[in-house]
Design goal:
564 residues, 7-stranded mixed beta sheet, 17% strand, 6-stranded mixed beta sheet
Length: 564
Amino acid sequence: MSRSSQPAHRALDRRTLLTAAGAAVIATGTGVALGGGGEPADAAAPTAVPPTPSASPSPTAPALPSPAGTTLVSTAAPRGAGGYRRLGEGRGWERVVREDLAAAGRAREDRRTTLACFVQLTDAHVTDVQHPLRFEYMRSGKPGAWRPQEALSVHGLVSMVERINSLRGGPATGAPLGLAVTTGDNTDNNCRAETEWFLTAMSGGRITPNTGDPLRYEGVQNSGLPLYWHPEGGADDTDRGRYGFPRVDGFLDAAIRRLTSPGLAIPWYSTVGNHDDLHGGHFAGGAHFTGLATGERKLYELPEAEAAALHRSVRRGLDTRGAALRELLRAHSRKTRTVTPDPSRAPLTTREYAAAHLDPAYTGPGPVGHGYTRAALEEGRLYYSFRVADGVLGVSLDTTNPDGDYRGHIGAAQLRWLERELTRHGDDHVLVFSHHYSESVTVGGAELTALLGRHAHVTAWINGHSHRNRIVPRGHYWEITTASHVDHPQLARVIELADNGDGTLSLFTTCVESAAPYAAGPGDLSPAGLASLYRELAFNAPGRSTSLTGKAGDRNTELLLRRR
């Protein structure tokens, strides 16, 4: 089918136009690598799919569309030219109608009923920036290996939670948001502290994004090394001298100060990613890495050639057990600096990761475990199915590799389980969630793609990992890949499924930015001001890819497909 792009005034239906005409962006709120699991022998399917969350919409006639607070209305846009650029309010992105899999009927807007409405979050990379085993030193060989915004990852996620809570309904259908699903890399270092911060941000509560010394920051941004941006001066760093990064007095104390998350107001489900499961998202290093992670020595710099070689090794999928990395750290042990040791930096096993989600302190609006169950804890199984809405099934996969490697992996037992789930729920529309996108699943990927292709009721495969917006037709279903919360453009995505009453379905995808102001006041170190700075630093980060936003047809869309 053809792919068509409509101007904003045509791409939105009549009801959307009426809503958007008087809508303003909703104001900001007041707040602002884990056990990937082995393959148990033929893990049994869950005895029952959890009941539909009470907030999930049943099929109904569409309400008024609610684009306010989404990128249909406005987006963050740079001001000025050259050097470090401030952000301000820019034009919204049009909705693109894509007919690759089915033609768009003229009367579909009047016949349409809503089947499901939910939010995808992905690649939050909640980061303990003082962790001894971080790879900041790789920046000497690859500028993008360290992000100047990383110290504010918690603030950014809390602001995204606030944005989701502020949405009045589906941007295309007006249906209430039923639930949210994360698609992995919720954390960055496979670290207990990061997991607790992520779970608190999603479920609600107070967070102190600090490890080590409880009173002061101990990391690269006050190291005196020119390799990193030093927000409070004290070093002649490259980011300020070459790129014009600002001086922000009080930044480091503010970054580790306590803040409060309201938590999502809707149920949410969790999917595991390689950074939740593996050290640095790549290494399965075992007990040796545990000692280094919780210890008192941290490497801050590495010669450019060695940093570049380490980066190439990871990109090629080498040294997944970390032997060469451990040797590198041993060889440079005299260059390490002393930091305050902290047991909360310890990595989590598969069982510990599932148990953390089951902790009552993190239940929030539910469900208990956010998809993980006691059975999953006992089996080390991090894949499951759940009810998105009446007639719509969600399947959350574990595509991490327990033997290491940042690329995707799905074993035979999980594939057999998935086959049974798809067969058992043949009358449902099925939405598949995973961290890795299709081309990045290098072990079992061909089998997974073939399996989804054999089941005509699979409607979409929704994922992340690439930090890039991309939407691709796959036979009879759509693959929807969404950009991250850590790298520019820092987006989540509202997804709405509707029956057009003419033999076709529509999947509406709408990107949303965090609730942070586009331009915070100078020196604003409130949680909201820091979330705004988080976005601005990400836009200006040296070495960032300018292609992550994707094309118009990868962002706000209506994706047509045939009803099966």
